[in-house]
Fold:
Amino acid sequence: MAFVAGLLDGGVLVSNGSGHLEPGALEVVRIAAALAEHGIDARHLRSFRQAADRQVDVVEQIAAPWRSQRGASARAKAGTVAAEVGELCAQLHTAFVRSGVERLDD
Structure:
């Protein structure tokens, strides 16, 4: 529990007003715990969180035209576009990290 509290205090995890953790928190805790075994703590993970939040802002801007429209089909399109662009952002981030790690062997 202290580990999760450290992630909350460090801004890595976010809770809503009623104290519930955001969706996906269990996965974040699992990955953060694995990284902690390599000496990466919450203060290091904060930059990961900030980068992800910036990417979500971009996704939100891209989906905004459909979100502002009325109707179920527009909302569905916004969700589809957001999911697709979000996944592409995650894939791009993964590609950047893999490329950087490969350069470490040079």
Summary: Helices lie at 2-9, 25-36, 42-67, 72-104. Residues 72-104 form the longest helix (33 residues). Residues 92 and 98 are 10 Å apart (CA to CA). The chain has one domain: 2-104.
